[in-house]
Amino acid sequence: MRILIVEDDHKIAAAVKRGLERQSYAVDMAHDGDKGLELALNEPYDLVILDRMLPGAVDGMGILKALRQADNHTPVLLLTAKDHVLNRAEGLNAGADDYLVKPFAFVELIARVRALLRRPQQALGTVLVHGDVTLDPENFVVTRSGSPITLTALEFSLLEYLMRNPGRVITRDQLIQNVWNYDADILPNTVEVYIGYLRNKIDKPFDSPDLIHTRRGFGYVFGEQP
After folding, report:
1. DSSP H helical ranges for 32-171
2. In Å, what is the CA distance from 194 to each residue of 164, 212, 216?
3. How confident is the model at residue 86 (pLDDT cuts 50, 70, 90)?
4. Is 191 helix (H, G, I), strand (E, B) or coil?
5. Which residue, 81, 142, 170, 212, is the most exposed by fewest CB within 10 angstroms?
6. Do the Cβ atoms of 74 and 117 come closer than 8 Å?
7. Of the candidates 222, 194, 206, 191, the residue with the CA atom closest to the CA atom of residue 148
8. How many Å separate Cα 12 from the centre of its chain?
């Protein structure tokens, strides 16, 4: 899953990014309102963590309002140093989904992130199940036929995205946009390599039907084939 952090304090942003990446999220960062607005409107994110006070032509409230005016309903967690009830109400009324006051503990941040990503409008279940494969996004556990499978953080994110889109043809570009960081160093065959890693762990060791399929010239499909 892919998260955008818009925070002008580089130290806070870097710490949050490291913590979220340890939880297997792909994370992009922006340090001013202009870049934050550009990314939020033009890149596919599952969640935006947005500082209220930002340098640039637009602040956090401006980004939030622009998203909602563009009919973009990506969940937004608003960060602020202001703990006044009117400030909180203003953010929520503008379309924020949750509100966190600085300074905050990372354990609370990650709890709020997970809660937002579980909301029904995102069609996110707590545990994903497809055939004999289960994936638990909160505990980072994957099994097939009851046997645990060890995945790297990137492999886990790739499998999660595929399992959230069973039966659909997913293009290479869609995988890059939704699984890899915005500034990741993507080589021409990076996606193919990681799909190969997943097949070696999810399909090849098991007698069950293969679940990861290539549609040459189009992309990949997750699920049993007729």
Report:
1. 33-42, 60-69, 85-93, 106-117, 153-163
2. 17, 12, 16
3. low
4. helix
5. 81
6. no
7. 206
8. 19
Give the pLDDT score at 123. 43
User: What angle (nearest 5°) sits at the alpha carbon of residue 204, between those of residues 134 and 166?
Assistant: 40
Q: Note if the pTM is more than 0.70.
A: no
Strand partners, 5: 29, 49
Q: What are 131-143's pLDDT values in tens digits?
A: 899 998 877 899 9
Give the residue from 76, 59, 63 showing the smallest Cα distance to 3: 76
For 194, list phi and psi in degrees, rounded to 5. -70, -30
Residue 149, judged by CB atoms within 10 A of its CB (0-12, 13-18, 19+), counts as buried
Long-range contacts of 212-221 (CB under 8 A, 24+ apart): 212/162, 215/169, 218/169, 218/171, 219/169, 219/170, 219/171, 219/172, 219/174, 219/175, 220/162, 220/169, 220/170, 220/175, 220/195, 221/167, 221/168, 221/169, 221/170
